[in-house]
Design a protein that fits this description.
Oligomer: single chain
Largest sheet: 9 strands, antiparallel
CATH architecture of the largest domain: Roll
Strand order of the largest sheet: 14-11-12-13-26-25-24-18-22
Shape: elongated
Helix content: 10-25%
Structural class: alpha+beta
CATH superfamily of the largest domain: DNA Polymerase III, subunit A, domain 2
CATH topology of the largest domain: DNA Polymerase III, Chain A, domain 2
Number of domains: 3
Number of helices: 7
Radius of gyration: 25 Å
Length: 394
Amino acid sequence: MKVICDRGALLDAINLISGAVAARTPKVQLTCVKFTASKSGNAGEVTLVATDAEISLRLRLAQVDVQQPGEALIPADKLRQIVSAEDSEPTLTLETEAEMIHIKGQDAHFKVFGYQVADYPPVPDIASVISGSDGTKAKAVFTHNAGLLSSTVARTLFATARENSRYAINGVLMKRDGKKLEMVATDGRRLALCRSTLSGGGDKDAKTISCIVPTKALTMLQRLLGNAEENVQVAITDNQVFFAIGGGAKNEAPHSVLSSTLVEGAFPPYEDVIPKDQDKKVTFDRDVLSSAVRRAALLTNEESRGVRMNFQAKKKHLELSSRAPEMGEAKVDINLADYEGDDIEIGFNPTFIIDALKVISDPQVIMELKAPNKPGVVKSGGDFIYVVMPVNLQ
């Protein structure tokens, strides 16, 4: 194999694909990136593949001059360090000699020991699961706009559990029902739900299908969804999910394909968690509320991390306050755009409120309340619902 690569494009691809490389593993091949250089007529491209045995990523790199097709298995950390360090070079040449990889710039020559490509595990391909050619056929295949999918992921991913013993809530539930896509995440103290309509359409009579996608896979997916205008093809099998980004036009192949094993287990019955009988409704300016909560949270600590929210119906006024022993007190007053219902005083973890406001794009948000010991609900438009449990205030 011999290829001349645009260094900047190669570094971007390596930075992306490094997320799928195994950090610690007895199988050294999984710490590598598989390079495949191919040529068709005058056009050449390089495909980079990485997997940690649970997540796999395949990237196509077109900014290359393929002088000799071939394959190589290159240690990811060294490849990344070398390409990053050669920051004055517009291009780099990669050439193989048995398992040795030569990386050359104008004034530098690196020799990196690689491994036999034949020892690299096979990485599943979305085309084969859609067609069923490898014996595993997708249960559902649909297309969505990258920008809409990225927004749906962002508005749920933040609420997933971190290292919780209930493994099923360490991921995001993805549910496709006809033309609707719903994603849900919870950590047991809050729940985020976001809905969107599939831009690529969908069979309205298609059976409902759901799966739990790992947090790591969705974090990587967001990095791949840089172009909001692209399409994303999603395929779901019994134990895997595939996301193919780009392509489609004139039968062009996708530039990125991410696949992941699914989280096993049953997701909690989230519909039962969403309150239906809230009798107090508050309309906020999103930025005003976010600023007020941030400021009130400045005098909180681990022992006293709640912010007290005192809603005054007649004045359409909210007083936020906090108190921490040996630290002091904070009080912030804001006027409310609209308020329906009686006065109420309730406490929330400020981080949970701020996290939700970060992912809401609408300038106005609605909060619905019932009682000081009942969960609050934050809504934005008709497609985002966020349920958050209150905290006890001393």
